[in-house]
Design a protein that fits this description.
By secondary structure, the protein is an alpha/beta fold. The protein is about 25% helix and about 15% strand. The protein folds into three domains: about 10-105 and about 180-390 and about 435-485, Alpha-Beta Barrel (TIM Barrel), CATH 3.20.20.80; about 110-165, Oligo-1,6-glucosidase, Domain 2 (Oligo-1,6-glucosidase, domain 2, Alpha-Beta Complex), CATH 3.90.400.10; about 500-575, Golgi alpha-mannosidase II (Immunoglobulin-like, Sandwich). It starts with 10 loop residues before the first strand and ends with a strand. The structure holds alpha-D-glucopyranose and calcium ion. GO terms for molecular function: hydrolase activity. Belongs to the glycosyl hydrolase 13 family.
């Protein structure tokens, strides 16, 4: 059918370069390490590799702070290594997607160095500078009350010119001024640079916050006790974001056959977010929406877990699966990335008893949803969150560290002593920290899981001796072997890629059931999200399922026609196809 595209049927594998494979024993993953694993990815059924940032960076935020957009960070290798990786991918029929981080640069980028040098520097206006505000007694304050992600004020004072610059993330990540056409030109040029060097697409970091509200007004006071306030509504999906992305499409994207996905946090409004994707708008192929992965977080507190229910989960999936289908909305299907805890630990059951089965059930979920598939490194072997017994020192992410320090200092001040109880914060981090997505890949049973022969930059999860890729390659029953066949099933059945989605039993607290229809082809998917055997008794669905073949699942297949009632075993996932 006419809406079929190579990037819609693609399976994309996200690599977090620092933690994938270390080739030179310095404890940090690198490009030659990635090159050495391409056959593994090909074998898994991967079409596109997306690399989290590999550009030159002081690594204040693990490479999401770029000091040179046209060079590779020495910890990862050289431009030659990049070329070899492109060649290695292309010769295997795979493609390469890069992370485009252009809402902000590093403060060490020469653009920012120039910008801060004087008010008259030609690059002054490439960033967002404002004079201080002074209160009645002459105390200096930032230009507005916006709070940054991962730290206090979104403004940092610079003495050289007696002004503040805006940074929506760390002070080492100054926001570029997209209002300036020269900035946009520079971005288009660096995109062309990588496309000409063999890159096949981009994942665009926080791309929905590049246009800030006019006048940069104070945010409404939502936390009266705090100095800085949540301003996300003032920069998410801002006034000119679509104009800029349409310009990007005209100038760069439309001239090549690329795959593009925009990361769009701080908004879960489907109507607002669909605009980035609808083909008539000529912007991006798809976005990463955060409604599903945010479901288990307390409101505005990403490191505080919140209990969730299956009907809520199904509602969110349903909303995005059925969004503006006729107008061509297309989903990016993901449940893990480098900013998230592991899916088996959040949405299933990572205890030894159920880990493998429930990780496979989540694989059935992913491959049977409409959208481009994203598999995060380690998801294919069922890596789980590292344990609660690990202390705060094992958390390397600046966001985890800053959050811990912030609460620690507040409690010490409130309680007037040093030894305050932080166990609830550690409980939350064990569930929700970004660190769990950044743990080194578990390749084999050798020290540090075969990730490095040196000292790893981050501790490897303790279960690597038994839980690793090598052991799973050898085991036809492993999570890895299951993912291979699940991705194959999807490739072989377009109904799973393109079919329309209907939620079948919206209030069921145990079973997620849905139908997919594509032309003459139909699929029914049943997923038991509990560790109990449950009877699925929606008669019409059972009858429908029973007339179709049970072709795929994480238990041995059940032969023949089943009755009006289907029994699903613990964490069983089934696909019926006709
Ligand atoms: C995105 C990235 C995250 C990073 C942030 C700032 O959300 O995925 O890792 O910290 O942007 O660049
Ligand atoms: Ca290395």
């Amino acid at each position: 059918m006419s809406n079929e595209k190579w990037w819609k049927s693609a399976a994309v594998y996200q690599i977090y370069p620092s933690s994938f494979c270390d080739s030179n024993s310095d404890g940090i993953g690198d490009l030659p390490g990635i090159l050495s694993k391409l056959d593994y990815l090909k074998e898994l059924g991967i079409d596109v590799v997306w690399l989290s940032p590999i550009y030159k960076s002081p690594q204040a935020d693990m490479g999401y702070d770029i000091a040179d957009y046209r060079d590779i960070d020495p910890r990862y290798g050289t431009l030659k290594d990049y070329d070899a990786l492109v060649e290695g991918l292309h010769s295997r029929g795979m493609k390469l997607m890069m992370d485009l981080v252009v809402n902000h640069s590093s403060d060490e980028h020469e653009w920012f160095q120039e910008s801060k040098s004087s008010k008259t520097n030609p690059k002054r206006d490439w960033y967002i500078w404002r004079p201080p505000r002074y209160d009645a007694d002459g105390t200096r304050h930032p230009p507005n009350n916006w709070k940054a992600q991962f730290q206090g004020s979104a403004w940092d004072y610079d003495e050289t010119t007696d002004e503040y610059y805006l940074h929506l993330f760390l002070a080492k990540q100054p926001d570029l001024n997209w209002e300036n056409p020269d900035v946009r030109q520079a971005v288009w040029e660096l995109m062309r640079f990588w496309v000409h060097r063999g890159c096949d697409g981009f994942r665009m970091d926080v791309i929905n916050i590049i246009s800030k509200v006019d006048g940069l007004p104070d945010a409404p006071i939502s936390a009266p006790d705090e100095e800085f306030q949540d301003a996300r509504a003032l920069f998410a999906n801002g006034p000119r974001v679509h104009i800029y992305l349409q310009e990007m499409n005209r100038e760069v994207l439309s001239k090549h056959d690329l795959i593009t996905v925009g990361e769009t946090p701080y908004s879960i409004d489907p109507t607002a977010l669909a605009k980035y994707v609808l083909p008539a708008n000529k912007e991006l192929d798809m976005i990463f929406q955060f409604e599903l992965v945010g479901l288990d977080s307390a409101p505005n507190a990403s490191f505080t877990p919140r209990p969730w229910t299956l009907p809520e989960f199904m509602q969110v999936v349903n909303r995005w699966q059925t969004l503006e289908r006729d107008a061509g909305y297309w989903n990016a299907v993901y449940i893990e990335n480098h900013d998230q805890g592991r899916s088996v630990s959040r949405w299933a059951d990572d205890s030894d008893a159920w880990r493998a089965l429930s990780a496979k059930m989540l694989a059935v979920l992913e491959v049977s949803l409409s959208g481009t598939q994203y598999v995060f490194q380690g998801q294919e072997i069922g890596i789980r969150n590292f344990p609660r017994s690990w202390g705060i020192e094992e958390y390397k992410d600046v966001a985890s560290q800053n959050w811990y320090k912030e609460v620690l200092e507040r409690r010490r001040a409130e309680q007037g002593r040093d030894d305050v109880d932080m166990s609830d914060i550690l409980d939350g981090l064990q569930k929700k920290a970004r660190d769990h997505g950044r743990i080194p890949m578990q390749w084999n049973a050798s020290p540090h899981g075969g990730f490095t022969t040196g000292t790893p930059w981050m501790r490897v999860n303790d279960d690597f001796p038994t839980w690793n890729a090598e052991a799973q390659i050898a085991d036809p029953d492993s999570v890895l072997s299951f993912w291979k066949s699940a991705l194959r099933l999807r490739k072989d059945n377009k109904v799973l890629i393109y079919g329309d989605f209907t939620l079948l039993d919206p209030t069921n607290k145990q079973v997620f059931a849905y139908r997919r229809v594509y032309g003459e082809k139909r699929a029914v998917i049943l997923l038991n999200f509990t560790s109990e055997t449950v009877k699925f008794t929606v008669a019409s669905v059972a009858a429908e399922a029973s007339t179709r073949g049970h072709v795929f699942g994480n238990y041995p297949l059940v032969d023949g026609v089943v009755g009006a009632e289907i029994e699903l075993r613990a964490y069983e996932g089934r696909v019926y196809l006709s």
